User: Which sequence fits this backbone?
């Protein structure tokens, strides 16, 4: 069956030229060269086998065949432009839904949420608690703020905000029993851990050259929790030594609720913002800028 549909790029070039009355003006609007538009118009005339434009002085005018095509094509492109513009308005008017794991949400984002709303009111931010691997673009999620490490998930843009540092923390009363020069003294206390971060203690122990066999035995004898948030509260209550991202305990360290006797260790993970697609000109870019500024101010205040 003969294909009677020409290329959309040729129809787009025709519509712009017919509406503006000039190949040059059409090329400027479409951000292509004059020659590119001319070639598209020639291919369209060859496709139909008739002339669509005739010279009129220094410009162009439609032939009767061109007028017939312009009526249908012009209406179609007008509807396309209107549909795209309406979708753009709808997207910009919709709330920006930021997914965030519960502990990161409770211990870092919520204390700064009022500040975020005041500085970025146009974001119309709506925050939801989610799993750390909530994928933007699904369930209306615009972005996910989470700790993760390479390889990054497929189908998302990952913006690295800050390298993750983890530290072993305890209540001031418990920390007083440890030697800051000897990390192995933490084995005298119960180790607190969570299934959501099984790699944290081994990473920390390796950085301090601690015996892995002794670590495994201490973790077996220690106390596990389902969520990092409960782990932190157990540490504050003096139940043992916990391991956590420094970012999530920074406020507790500053106020003295927790102590990190042996400092912090950098891991391969990052605090990241996962995006459904690149949007450096839109709301995502403004959120990235705010997060980086907030993190920088936080680290400078240490």
Assistant:
């Amino acid at each position: 069956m003969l294909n009677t549909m020409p290329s959309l790029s040729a129809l787009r070039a025709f519509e712009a030229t017919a509406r503006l009355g000039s190949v040059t003006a059409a090329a400027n609007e479409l951000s292509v060269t004059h020659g590119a538009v001319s070639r598209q118009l020639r291919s369209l005339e060859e496709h139909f086998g008739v002339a669509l434009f005739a010279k009129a002085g220094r410009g162009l005018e439609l032939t009767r065949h061109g007028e017939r095509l312009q009526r249908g094509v012009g209406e179609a492109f007008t509807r396309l432009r209107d549909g795209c513009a309406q979708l753009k308005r709808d997207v910009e008017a919709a709330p920006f839904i930021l997914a965030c794991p519960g502990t990161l949400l409770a211990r870092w984002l919520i204390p700064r949420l009022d500040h975020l709303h005041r500085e970025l009111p146009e974001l119309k931010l709506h925050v939801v608690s989610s799993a750390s691997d909530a994928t933007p673009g699904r369930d209306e999620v615009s972005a996910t703020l989470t700790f993760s490490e390479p390889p990054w998930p497929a189908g998302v843009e990952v913006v690295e905000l800050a390298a993750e540092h983890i530290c072993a923390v305890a209540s001031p009363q418990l920390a007083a029993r440890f030697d800051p020069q000897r990390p192995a003294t933490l084995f005298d206390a119960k180790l607190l851990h969570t299934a959501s971060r099984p790699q944290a203690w081994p990473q920390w122990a390796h950085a301090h050259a601690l015996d892995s066999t002794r670590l495994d035995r201490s973790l077996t004898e220690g106390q596990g929790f389902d969520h990092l948030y409960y782990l932190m509260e157990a540490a504050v209550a003096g139940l043992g030594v916990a391991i956590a991202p420094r970012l999530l305990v920074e406020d507790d360290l500053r106020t003295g609720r927790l102590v990190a006797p042996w400092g912090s260790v950098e891991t391969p993970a990052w605090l990241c913002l996962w995006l459904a697609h690149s949007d450096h000109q839109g709301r995502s870019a403004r959120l990235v800028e705010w997060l980086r500024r907030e993190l920088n101010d936080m680290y400078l205040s240490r």
The mean pLDDT is 88. Strands lie at 53-56, 59-62, 96-100, 125-129, 143-148, 157-169, 192-194, 223-225, 242-245, 265-275. Residues 96-161+270-300 form a domain with the D-Maltodextrin-Binding Protein; domain 2 fold (CATH 3.40.190.10). The two ends are 73 Å apart (CA to CA).
